[in-house]
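User: Just a sanity check before I run the rest of the batch. Below are the structure tokens for the first item. I only need the designed sequence back.
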């Protein structure tokens, strides 16, 4: 199984929480929930497309199977950015917190549990002049490490004009069993999608 798709929109970071009463914590950023919902729906659309249009045939990668995840966040280009070059995306949001939101959104759709992610490659960069913000995502079975990327993720890397970048995008690579966050999603919409998927597959 290999999913490759692009989610348009401004990536949101997940991680900072605030107390809303005894024993209840919620995300500080109001942008996280709609962003996770968007990612979940685009992922669901990709799984259905892979299943040749049959929603009942679409299913997450089995719990016992390791997963490799590639994510490339394309951040909005500030108006003050020079037109002749694109500097590195070194401002907030933090890369690891952006990845955490993707991990929650894909749970129950691309995989059963985000603990299955044994290989993670993540980048964060500013959008080019003719490019909109969003996130390139590729999910595949991590049977052979070092396999080449496919689909939109690889296309994005190939099309990136290296000569315009000063330095390299902020990146993070994780392997050998480190989970994205180790917690189930607190996004009701994403959980509902996963719940409905499991019900239909029974």
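Assistant: Here's the designed sequence for the first item:
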């Amino acid at each position: 199984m290999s999913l490759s798709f692009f989610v348009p929109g401004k990536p949101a970071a997940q991680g900072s929480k605030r107390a809303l009463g005894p024993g209840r914590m919620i995300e500080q950023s109001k942008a996280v929930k709609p962003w996770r919902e968007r990612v979940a729906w685009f992922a669901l659309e990709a799984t259905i497309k892979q299943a040749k249009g049959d929603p009942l045939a679409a299913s997450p990668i089995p719990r016992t199977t390791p997963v490799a995840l590639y994510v490339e966040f394309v951040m909005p280009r500030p108006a003050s950015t020079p037109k002749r070059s694109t500097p590195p995306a070194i401002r907030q949001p933090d890369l690891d917190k952006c990845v955490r939101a993707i991990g929650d959104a894909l749970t129950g759709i691309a995989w059963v549990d985000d603990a299955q992610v044994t290989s993670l490659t993540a980048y964060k960069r500013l959008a080019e002049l003719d490019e909109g913000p969003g996130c390139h995502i590729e999910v595949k079975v991590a049977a052979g490490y070092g396999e080449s990327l496919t689909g939109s993720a690889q296309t994005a890397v190939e099309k990136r004009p290296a000569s315009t970048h000063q330095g390299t995008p902020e990146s993070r690579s994780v392997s050998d069993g480190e989970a994205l966050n180790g917690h189930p999603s607190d996004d009701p919409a994403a959980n509902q999608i996963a719940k409905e998927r499991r019900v239909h597959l029974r």
